From TrEMBL, chains A, B:
Name of the protein: Aspartate carbamoyltransferase regulatory chain
Protein keywords: Metal-binding, Pyrimidine biosynthesis, Transferase, Zinc
GO cellular component terms, A-Z: aspartate carbamoyltransferase complex
Species, as recorded: Nitrosarchaeum koreense MY1
Gene Ontology molecular function: metal ion binding; transferase activity
Domain of life of the organism encoding this protein: Archaea
Length: 138, 138
């Protein structure tokens, strides 16, 4: 279960993590749920979904307040907050069309997280500082 | 509440009806819910959403098994199945690029529902028979 997703980001998380229910698993999404801690939050519950590092990195960028709750046999067995790593490889695309990571040379993008609190990412190749709200996925 | 949405169509209905929670209203979506009547179904609950004719027509095309349940003060006050009208104006785009409804003359699309059961639509202008699973919205 993904809890405390920043209000209004639930559908974006769904799409970034490619949760679409096409595998037939039960999915529940709640948007704009009243929350004590923050004003409102979005929640996503998914059966049998194992988050890879790429998924938690996307989550940390899109919904930095999110918590990941792992539930097994109706018991909460793990609860953790998402956190940005020092660098994010591959998953996002640099917004600079002239950046070598966007060339035909198939170089994987590398972004340094230069401010974790403010979610500021910087392309290691062209040094462009990236707006996390406009990032495109590879 | 929209119940009995055809399995796997919930997110498409959400997008077609422009339900995105940006107005802050509480929204719950459940995908792949076990259902006695059909094998599985999707469900969408929305606060303060009034469906216009265009919305129910979209719903009838995308999720023909859907039921619309109107709940007020915790009571179910109306329950109805969606049904295709005889013609659908404006909301869908003809897939024929040469159709006059796609020209710059701003003519509204008109589609005759020639088979309600099989959900077959036919453009009144160019007579193209349209695949309901590939319709684009205007």
């Amino acid at each position: 279960m993904l809890d405390h997703i920043d209000e209004g980001k639930g559908l974006q998380v769904l799409s970034a993590l490619r949760i679409d229910g096409k595998d037939g698993s039960l999915i529940t999404i709640a948007l704009n749920v009243p929350s004590g801690k923050f004003k409102k939050k979005d929640i996503i519950k998914v059966e049998n979904k194992f988050l890879k590092d790429d998924d938690t990195n996307k989550l940390a960028v899109i919904a930095p307040k999110a918590t990941i709750n792992i539930i097994k046999d109706y018991k909460l067995i793990e609860k953790r907050r998402v956190a940005l790593p020092n660098e994010i490889n591959r998953i996002f695309r640099c917004s600079n069309p002239d950046c070598i990571s966007n060339s035909t040379e198939h170089i994987e993008s590398v972004m340094d997280v230069i401010d974790k609190e403010g979610r500021v990412l910087k392309c290691r190749y062209c040094s462009r500082v990236l707006d996390v709200n406009k990032l495109k996925y590879n």
